């Protein structure tokens, strides 16, 4: 087996080319309709007929007025069963031929006119043999034999020889299996690599030993691909370990800061400075928590999935949001509640995604929030609308980036760490869904989530 892809392509190309040239050059020589020498048995048969006709002519004296009748009587008498005999005079006159055969008979006479070396040739359904020399006194005639052609060669093969373009097409079809095998051998490792790359794109970082096989070039690519996977796994692990270490190291001084704040409040009472320190400490604590959640969410292997109904998944989120909206003096509408639609995924991640978006709407809305659900044969669509300040069109794709903040009303003064929507987008994409931002009919921002149904994922 040729291991080099370059050598394989080169060898198959020249092998195919040689096969095509060989067929083009050799097939015409295999045409049974080519003029060929007679077999020994055919030679003996012709000489025997020649002798019988000469003897017959000697017994039948010539008649100047009806000279051609005695020739017809002789060839009719000694013609083998199912065959016919022709006589060609020295002037080129053909006796015993049918009008429809004259063209092919003339063609054969022009190719075979030597009685010392008689030949044969097929013309469609008949075969002509000759010539044999018949002597009639001072006159000499050439004797030809017409018999039915044997069916050793099919009409389709005859058609190939008569139509060069059709012969070329058949030759291309014969070479097609070699070319298909070459294309398949090239495409198979490429498809494996494509499937492996798709898995990496979807977050499944696992090595593929089957890539390290086949031609040398693909073997090297597969080896490099698996090395890349190992490097990515190492980087992901190192990133998670770093975030965990950072959060642990930050929580220790943060806890001391919160303890010191409590001691100062006890000793000196309330103050604006203490309130500011405590607010920033709480924001820092929330940011550390969100960073850890984002890190765990981005590592898809950490998600444990199961089948769950949408109403069981999000009813509690909606109940809690309604209670919070009431406490804030705002109105939360749910015109279409989730039904018993089956989803497949990590319940905590999906529940947290909707909760983050609803809380985001509660934080930035003025008075009104709406959450609606709809379903079709493909999946579930969720619209979360608010009547807040909204987000400009150029910022709508950027708000899903970690720590991104707009320059308008949705800024740091309104709270949050800037990680909530990044966590939402990561979780939704890992469940083969999508999330986008648009203008809301309520005047603020509309966030739309789409998730596929479980029966479409099996």
TrEMBL record:
Domain HAMP: 184-237
Enzyme superclass (EC): transferase
Transmembrane regions listed in the UniProt entry: 165-184
Keywords: ATP-binding, Cell membrane, Kinase, Membrane, Nucleotide-binding, Phosphoprotein, Transferase, Transmembrane, Transmembrane helix, Two-component regulatory system
CDD domains documented for this protein: HAMP (cd06225), HATPase_CpxA-like (cd16949), HisKA (cd00082)
Histidine kinase domain: residues covered: 245-455
Name of protein: histidine kinase
Source organism: Izhakiella capsodis
